[in-house]
Amino acid sequence: MKVLITGIDGYSGWPLALHLLSRGHDVVGVDNFVTRKRVKEVGSWSATPIPPMPRRLAAVKEVLGKELRFYRGDLSDWELVRHLLETERPETIVHLAEQRSAPYSMIDVHHAVATQVENLTGTLHLLYAMKEVVPEAHLVKMGTMGEYGTPNMDIPEGFFEAEFHGRRDHLPFPRQAGSWYHWSKVFDSGDVMFATKIFGLRATDVMQGVIYGIRTPEITDHRLFTRFDFDETWGTALNRFIAQAVLGLPITPYGKGEQKRGFIALEDSMQSLRLAVEHPARPGEYRVFNQFDAAYSVNELAERVGRVAADLGLHPTIEHPSDPRVEAEQHYYNPIHENLLGLGYRRTRELDDVIREIFHDLIRYRRRLVARQHVLSATVNWRLPDSRPLLRARNAAGASPTPPPVDPTAPSSAHTVA
Ligand SMILES: NC(=O)c1ccc[n+]([C@@H]2O[C@H](COP(=O)([O-])OP(=O)(O)OC[C@H]3O[C@@H](n4cnc5c(N)ncnc54)[C@H](O)[C@@H]3O)[C@@H](O)[C@H]2O)c1
Question: Is the pTM here over 0.85, yes or no?
Answer without folding.
Answer: yes
